Amino acid sequence: MGYITELTDKYISNTYARFPIEIAEGKGSVFTDTEGKRYIDLGTGISVNTFGIADEEWQDAVIAQMKRYQHTSNLYYTEPGAKLAQMMCERTQMSKVFFSNSGAEANECAIKAARKYAYDRKGADYYTIITLKGSFHGRTITTLAATGQETFHRDFQPLTEGFVYAEPNDLESVEKLVEKEKVAAILFEVVQGEGGVIPLNPEFLSGIAQIADQNDILLIADEVQIGNGRSGELYGYMNYDITPDIFTTAKGLGGGLPIGATVFNKKTADVYGPGMHGSTFGGNPLSCAGAINILSRIDSELLSDVKEKSAYIFSAFEGAEGVKSVSGLGLLIGIETEKQPMMVVEQCRQQGVLVLTAKNRVRLLPALNIPWQELTEAIDVIKSVCAGG
Ligand SMILES: *Cc1c(COP(=O)(O)O)cnc(C)c1O
Asked: Angle 333-334-336 (CA atoms, 0-180°, nearest 5)?
C-alpha cells in the first residue's frame, strides 16, 4: 500500500475499517486502484452514486452550476433548490421540502418537526417517537437514539430521550407502545438497509399507517438508502399502500454530492416557521443541480430496468449453492450465505468485485444503470465465491 494509506491511517480519525484499496479513478460501475487492478462496483459508495462513477450528464449539470455560483446561503433565493423542491413535490404529491446535507440531518429535521407538530396539537408530553429494532437512522446523538440497535448506543450515553423501539413486522408490539406512551410519530425504513436488508411486510406497513391515522401520529418514512429509484419506484413507500406524512432522503439523491431532504405532506408542510430550523449548506446549488439531473433521469423506463435487474439478481441467487436466502427490494439486495459475509466480501474483492455487508448478509447496491455485461460478470463471481470452499 502506498502513501494514501499511510497518510489516512496517520491523520484521519480511526472510525472506518477500510478495505486495502486505494482508488485511482473510475467510470460507470468500474473502479481502478493505484496498482491498476479493476473492480466492478456493486456498492455505489453506499447507495450514493446512483448513475455510477463520473457520470457525464450529471457532471455537466454540476459543472454548469459551478460556473454560475457555488453557494449563496439561504438568505437569498436560488434556482437549483427551488426547481429541485418543485420536482420532488410534484412527483410525490407532497407539499414542501427542507434541504440539508446528509441522511442524519434529514432525520433530525423530521424528528424536530414531529415534536413540534405533536406539541402544537396534543401538548408538550407527546414527544415520543416509535422506531423499529434493527433500524438505522444516523450517527448524531439523536439519530443514534432513533436507531433501534443496542450496539450503536452503548458507548455514547446519555442519548436524546423520547425514543421507544417496536419489533419490525409485529403490529402488536407497535399497538402496545401506542397505548403505553404519548406518541408523536412512527419512524421506519420500508427495507431496513444497515439492519440486514430486512423488508417490512405490506400488512405491517398498512397496519402502522392505520394506527398512525387513528391516533393522529405522524408516519415518517426514512428513504435515505432505498429512495431515489433504488426500490424500483421513485421512493420505497410507493411499492406499498401507504403515504407517509414526512419522508426523508439523502444518499442517492445527489448522485455523489452531499444532500439531505425532508419532505412534508400537506398536513405537516407548515410545521416550521422562520428561524425554527436551518442549515448553512442546506440546498447547496451544486448538490441541487446534481440532484435535478439524477431525479429527471429516474423515469418509468429506468425504474422498469431496475425491476428487471432486481429479478435477475434474485433468480441468480435463490437456491444457488452456498446461499441460504435472498432478501430486499429493487437494487437493495441481501444475500444470506453459508460462508461468513465478510469472507464473501473479501474473496469477491480479490476477484475484482466490490460488495458490502449488512449484519449477517452480503449486501448489493449496484448503480441503477449498471450495464448488463458488468452486472452478469459480477454476479457470476459472487455466485462462484458463495459456492466455493
Ligand atoms: C445511511 C443512512 C442514514 C444516515 O445517512 P448519513 O448521510 O450517513 O447521515 C440514515 N438512514 C438510513 C436508512 C441510512 O441508510
From this structure: 150
